[in-house]
Design a protein that fits this description.
2 copies of one chain form a homodimer.
Chain A lengths: L3 E9 L3 E3 L18 H4 L2 H7 L8 H7 L5 E7 H4 L23 E5 L7 E2 L5 E5 L3 H12 L3 E4 L3 H9 L5 E7 L7 E2 L11 E7 L5 E7 L3
Parallel strand pairs in A: 1-7, 1-8, 3-4, 3-7, 4-6
Antiparallel strand pairs in A: 2-9, 5-6, 8-11, 10-11
GO biological process, one term (chains A, B): riboflavin biosynthetic process
InterPro entries (chains A, B): DHFR-like_dom_sf (IPR024072), RibDG_C (IPR002734)
GO molecular function (chains A, B): 5-amino-6-(5-phosphoribosylamino)uracil reductase activity
């Protein structure tokens, strides 16, 4: 069965997945790079960016789960570009000519536009759809593989609320952002639907994995 | 130097230290006992309640730090009793005749009343005071020992915001309460003032310790 998976979704100790003030030079707003330093230090990240080195410990082991078995991604409009990108008909995403996805990517937006084929195997499609509809479309495109749910926080929350997520990996970083978009709002008793594990690592972060109970 | 310490302060994954609907038979509201199961399973708790057994692993090691070196406690009105206790002049706290504190305890309330001497060494004093004033009073009573800050969440938050906390032990439990009183609101960049460690344990909880940087 094709699963819906969330990977490397990083939040602050106070639960924010994104700060305030997102802009072309600030994809995470005032959070800056504080949420993702743990990932930049991994071999996973070095390999993805063509750099040398990177740790191969627990943070790497979790981070690398991002890749295998994925046939498509779903993301929110805020992950695709800064506020207002919909007003630029030439906008092609944060990632330059060759995005790292290398699969079909379904961008949820109330203002769909024609699909864009990028270098390296990524094609961006634009959908105005409910979570269940978007998942059905992405599953068809994934050809039997799993679908990754890329964020941001409100998109993950919407799919969780509808019971559509099979696996979720959340990384909690010991910083307090104070402001931004929370992951956990409105998800009371989410633990009833998942087996949850927590593992803290020497970098100071805590990895939380949520595995959906058989329904 | 007498320190101000927070121990065994337990929150849900979504950051709530107390649920909604606190009442005489529900000190933590709809959270029930879900936040504190980890502690009930420790030798620390067994010893405190006169029971047998209890684990002596990491959860116990953290929990037991609650006791040594404490000369006084400060707590909010919501820790002393259910909503409305101020209307009952005979009310003497949640804990019966012999509360477990065995030191002076300063209860913050806008409606102070005469002090109450209990069995076993606990005396409840009632103060309408700012955090700094309350700490000064408690320090005098502690006779050179440390002062424990007992909660609830809004009281801990107020003392954190004023930079008065020297050590804080927070336990994060993998449940989502959805509603209640949050610990972390309004504490942006708290990490600048503390060295923070995270340790997850086999019970599934994560212990976070905050050690104030030398100021």
């Amino acid at each position: 069965m094709s699963e819906l998976r969330v990977h490397n979704f990083t939040i602050s100790l106070d639960g924010f997945g994104t700060g305030v003030g997102q802009a072309p030079d600030a994809p995470f707003g005032h959070a800056g790079e504080r949420l993702h330093q743990w990932m930049f230090a991994t071999r996973f990240w070095a390999d993805m960016t063509g750099a040398e080195g990177g740790g191969t410990g627990a943070d790497h082991a979790f981070a690398a789960m991002h890749e295998p078995g994925i046939g498509a991604e779903i993301m929110g409009a805020g992950k695709f570009g800064p506020p207002g990108w919909q007003d630029d008909p030439e906008y092609r995403g944060w990632w330059g000519d060759e995005p790292p996805f290398r699969t079909p990517v379904f961008v949820l937006t109330h203002r769909p536009r024609p699909s864009i084929e990028m270098k390296g195997g990524t094609t961006f499609h634009f959908l105005s759809a409910s979570p269940a509809e978007a998942l059905e479309t992405a599953r068809e495109a994934a050809g039997g593989k799993d679908v990754r749910l890329g964020g941001g926080p409100s998109v993950v929350r919407d799919f969780l609320a509808e019971g559509l997520v099979d696996h979720m990996h959340v990384v909690q970083v010991p910083v307090l952002l104070g402001r931004g978009v929370r992951l956990w709002d409105g998800l009371e008793s989410l633990e009833d639907a998942f087996d949850i594990e927590a593992v803290s690592t020497p970098s100071g972060v805590t990895h939380l994995t949520f595995t959906a109970k058989r329904r």
